[in-house]
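REVIEWER CHECKLIST
Item 1: Sequence provided? yes
Item 2: Single chain? yes
Item 3: Sequence as submitted:
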Amino acid sequence: MGETQGGHTETARGVTGRRALLIGGAAAAVGTAALARGELARLWWRLPGVEKPRVAGAVDFRGAQWVSASPANYRRADRPDDYGIDMVVIHVTQGGFRSAVKVFQDPAHGAAAHYVVRKDGHITQMIRELDVAFHAGNREYNERSVGIEHEGFVDEASSFTDAMYAASARLTAGICRHYGIPVDRKHVIGHVEVPGTDHTDPGRYWDWDRYMALVRRAHRTGV
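Item 4: Structure as written out by the authors:
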């Protein structure tokens, strides 16, 4: 799940350029007519080195429990403004829920996902969606995606319970709705589909047809 660090200076320059353009445009507007106070309030955090406000223990998905991953296992960011989010990556932990949470809290592990879904449908958030989690093993995919781990094993069909499918589908639907991500298999993918990865999850027992039907239903109804 670790992130490859090299080869992305063009991406960094693109982000800087976009911020500079935005800030420059705001400055020009100020030179001709004062910007509304509310507009300035929305723009201030886009300045280089300024981050969006964060509330300790707050979650992005209602009903999730916050347990922080080690800062060594993700990179602070201001998504989707510095990196657009257009993908959800589905993982399987290859272990129990508690062990997954514990390893994501270990700075030596070098990887973690944004969410972990337990067999009973309980959802734990460990990294804010603002931030880049080291979950996909591909820097570009890390920057553009939200990673969801699921308790269990790829070779055990019993790992994937009704409660897990339902809870995960609501989570994925909420992420897709929030960022305008199409609900299809080009944008909701398995870890195995990430270029350059050697992982096989979620594996042959993950029922993609069932899962995507649940995601589409939750996306449509908002439930």
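Item 5: Key structural point noted by reviewer: Residues 1-46 have pLDDT under 50 and may be disordered.
Item 6: Recommendation: ____
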